[in-house]
Amino acid sequence: MGSDPPKRYAAFISYSHSAEGAFAPALQEGLQRLAKPWRRQRALEVFRDQTGLAVSAGLWPSICAALDGSSWLVLLASPQAAQSAWVGKEIERWIATKGSQTILPVVTDGTWVWDERAGDFDREASTAVHPALHGVFAAEPRHLDMTWAKQETHLTLRNPRFRDAVAELAAPMHGLTKDELEGDDVRQQRRTIRLARGTVAGLAVLTLAASSAAVVAVNTAEQAGVQRRRAEAQKNLALSRQLVAQSEQLWSADPLTARRLALTAYRLAPTDDARYSMLAAMTLSGRAVLNGHTDYVLAVAFSPDGRTLATGGNDKTIRLWEVATRRPIGEPLIGHTAEVNVVAFSPDGRTLATGSRDRTVRLWDVATQRPIGDAFTSSADEVNAVAFSPDGHTLATSGGDNMIRLWDVASRRPIGKPLTGHTAEVNAVVFSPDGRTLATGGDDNMIRLWDAASRRPIGKPLTGHTKKVTSVAFSPDGRTLATSGGDNMIRLWDAASRRPIGKLLTGHTAGVLSVAFSADGRTLASGSLDRSIRLWDVATRSSIGEPLVGHTDAVYAVAFSADNRTVASAGSDTSVRLWDASAHRPAGEPLTGHTDAVYAVAFSPDGRTLATGGGDKTVRLWDGATRRPIGKPLTGHTDAVESVAFSPDGRTLASGGDDHTVRLWEVATRRPIGEPMNGPLALSVDFSPDGRTLASGGGDHTVRLWEVATRRPIGEPLIGHTAEVNAVAFSPDGRILATSGADYTVRLWDVATRRPIGEPLTGHTETVWSVAFSPDGHIVASAAGDNTVRLWDVTTRRPIGNPMSVFSVWVGSVAFSPDGRMLASASSTDAVQLWDVATRRPIGEVLNGPADVVGSVAFSPDGRMLASANWDNTARIWDLTAFSNPFKTLCDAGGSLPSAEWNRYLPGEPYQQLCPGVS
C-alpha cells in the first residue's frame, strides 16, 4: 500500500471573518514564523482563505482543494463561527474526508461546554460550538482557550502569552512536544543572528546586482495587480457572506429587502450560500410590508387592474398604494371622523367607496384622491360593509342597524327601502358576478341571499355557522359562495341550491374575519384572529402550504390581486402585508383518472408525456402540455403498479407491479411489447442510459437485469440485500447500479461484473425507499422511513454531511433536478420538499397538494416542472420555472436595492443597479 501524498499545507484555518478578521491573520503569522529555519520563508505553510485563495470562478472547489491538501484543521470557535454556514461546510468536508482526530479547536469567544453524560457538547450552554461538531467526538476534544486574546492589542510572537499559545498549537504540526518546539525556536533564532552578522561584509557585492532592479520592478507590478484582484475578490466574498446573513434575518420582517440583499450577495460572489439565499428568498410567501397607518388596519382592496391598493383603518384615514413600488400614492385621504371599516373599488377602478364607524359612506375620485360630493349617512349605526354592483351603478351597504341599503352611485340616493331580515348587526355584503344576487352575513349567525332587482330574500337563510358571520364572497363564476365566522370555520355553499359543499375548511384556531377568492376561482384566502392567513384549494377544499405568518396581531381583511399572484392582508399590528399566492401550489388542476392511489410517475425524455401507475392496476399516459390523458389506460397488470420508467429514446415504457411482472409498452401505440417478464414483486424499474438493459428490484431481496431486446434475464440475480429491494437506479454513465431496500441499506453494483462495489452504505435506521443519482454521477441520494434524505459520495461511498431531516413519518421518493442543483423529496405527510444540494438546506416551505401521502416525484427534463404521484388517486404538476433563473426572478419580484438601502448595507461601496429596467 502506497503512502499518502504530501500535504501542501500544514494547517487550514477555518474562521468567521466578522469575528476573527484580525485574530486569524495574527495566528497565521505566528504559526508561520515560530521556529522558522533561516533558509525557509516560513516554518509552516498555513492556509487562510484571504491569503491562500486565488481569484476563481469555482470558490468552493478551491476551498475543498485547500482542505484536502492540509494536515490539520485549526477551528477558531466563536458564536459567530457557530452560526456560519461557510464554517459548517468546511467542518463537514473535513470530517467526511479526514475524520475528527486532526481538528484543533481554538476558542476565541463564547462558551465551549462538554456534557459527560450525553457524550457530546451541551447544546444550550455551548455558544461557540458549531452544529456540525455535535455527535462527532467520542470524548471531549482538547481545545485551546484564547478568549483572552480579544483584549490584547499586540498579537505577535513578542507577546509571551500569545507565543506560548502558538507553540502549543504548532507543536503537533511539527511532530514535536511543545518544549521541543520552543527549544528549536531558540536555536533557530541564535543561528539567524550569527548569519546576519556575517552578511554585513557581503553588502558590497549586492550593490553590483542593482542593475536587475528594473526587471524585478516589472514582476512586482504584475504581482501587485494579482494582489489587488485577489483582495477585491476576498472583499466581495466577505461582503457577500455578510449580505446572506442579513437577508436571512429579514425573511419574516422585511421579505422585499431580504430578496434584494440575496440578489446583491450573489452578484458580489456567486457562492453556494449566496445562491441558496436567492432560492430561499424566492420562496418567501411575504412580498412586502406596507407601513403608514398609525392604528389598526381594518380594510384592504385591490383596484381591478391590480396596480393600486386601498387600505383603511382605526386612524380614520384611507391610504392608496402603488403595488409595483409598494409606495404610498399621495397623502392619506381624510374625511371620516371615526375608524374606516371597509374600502371597495368600483368595477372601472375610478371610484373608491369607504364606510366608517362615523355612520357615513364616502366616494372618492381615485385619480385626484378627492371626495366625490358630500358624505351620505348610510346607517343609524356604523357602516360595516360596502359593495359595488358589477355594472358600478349600485352600491350596497350594511351596518349596525341590522339593515342593508342600496344606493344609486350617480345620485348618491337610496334605492327603495332598506332590506330587512337579519336580527343582528350585518357584517358583510357582496354582489354575485352577474349582479342578480346579493349575499349578506351577520351577527345572527345567518347568511341571506337577496334578489337584487326585487330586493326580496331568496329562500330561507343559510345556517351552519355557530357564531357570527364575518365575511361573504362569491367565486368569479358565481357558482360558489364562501363564508367565514367567529366559529373559526369557513364554509362553501352552492349558490344555486343554497346547500353546503363538502367538508368545512378547518385550520384556523380563532375566528375567521375575512375571505376572498382569487380571480381564477381556484384559491380562497382567509384571515383570522389567530394572526395568520391561509390559502385553500377550492376544488379539494384543502389548505395550500403552511399558514402565512408575519402579522403580530389579528388579521382583519384579505384581498386577491387580479393576476392571482398576490394576497394583501390588513392587521391590527398597523401593517399591511403583501404575500406571494403563487408559491406552493400546483400548476393547473390535479390529473384525475386513476381510481386508486397513484404510486409512480415519470416524464418522457422529451418532456411531452407523463406516465403514472397506481393501485388500480393501470398505467396512464398524459399530455405534458395540456395535462390531459392520452388514450385509454394501459391495462394488463393484475395488481398495483409500483414503478414506471421511460427508455432513453422515449419509445418504450417499462412498468413493474405487485403481480410479479415487469411489462414493456410501445409509447406511440400504447400496446404491450411481447409477454411480461416474470419474477418477484417488481417494486422498481430503471433503464440503463443506452436503453439496452432494464433493472428491476423486487420482493425476493434480489435485483434482476434484463436484456430489453429479448426481455430475457442477464445472468443470475444480484444478491446482497437481506430484505425486499425497493429502488434501483443506473448511474448516468451506466457503469454503476444503486439499489436500496428494507434492510436499511444502499448498495452500489458494478454493472459489467454484476458484483457489489465495496460494503453497503449504512446510516439509515429504517427501510430505504428510494435512490437517485445526480446528473454528474458523483452523488447518490437516498430516502428512508427514518424521516431523512441522505447524500453519498459515489467515489468514497461516504455520507456527504449530515442527513437532511424531514418532518414526516417517512420519505418515500427522491429525484435530482436535471442540473443537479436541486433535490425533491416526497413524504407521507402529503408534502413535497425541495432541497439545495450544495448546502443541503430546504428551499422554502413544503409544496402541499393532496391531503394524503405523496408516493413519488419526478422532474421534467428541462427542470421547469415537477410531477408528484399521490395516494389521493391524483398526480400533480408543479411549476418550477422561476428556479431556472433565480437572479431574474428576484429582479422581477422586487429589483435591486435602492441607493439609500445600498448605502445602508454597503457603505463606501459604489452603487450598482443590478436589475436594469426594474426599480
TrEMBL record:
SMART domains per the UniProt record, alphabetical: TIR (SM00255), WD40 (SM00320)
GO biological process: signal transduction
Chain positions of WD repeats: 290-331, 333-374, 376-417, 419-460, 462-503, 505-546, 548-589, 591-623, 634-675, 684-716, 718-759, 761-802, 811-845, 847-880
Pfam families linked to this entry: ThsB_TIR, WD40
PROSITE patterns linked to this entry: TIR, WD_REPEATS_1, WD_REPEATS_2, WD_REPEATS_REGION
Gene3D superfamilies: Toll/interleukin-1 receptor homology (TIR) domain, YVTN repeat-like/Quinoprotein amine dehydrogenase
Top-level taxon: Bacteria
Domain annotation TIR: ranges: 7-129
Keyword ATP-binding appears in the UniProt entry: no
Entry annotated with the keyword Aminoacyl-tRNA synthetase: no
Keywords linked to the UniProt accession: Repeat, WD repeat
PANTHER family: TRANSCRIPTION INITIATION FACTOR TFIID, TRANSCRIPTION INITIATION FACTOR TFIID SUBUNIT 5
Protein name: WD40 repeat-domain-containing protein-like protein
Native source organism of the sequence: Streptosporangium roseum (strain ATCC 12428 / DSM 43021 / JCM 3005 / KCTC 9067 / NCIMB 10171 / NRRL 2505 / NI 9100)
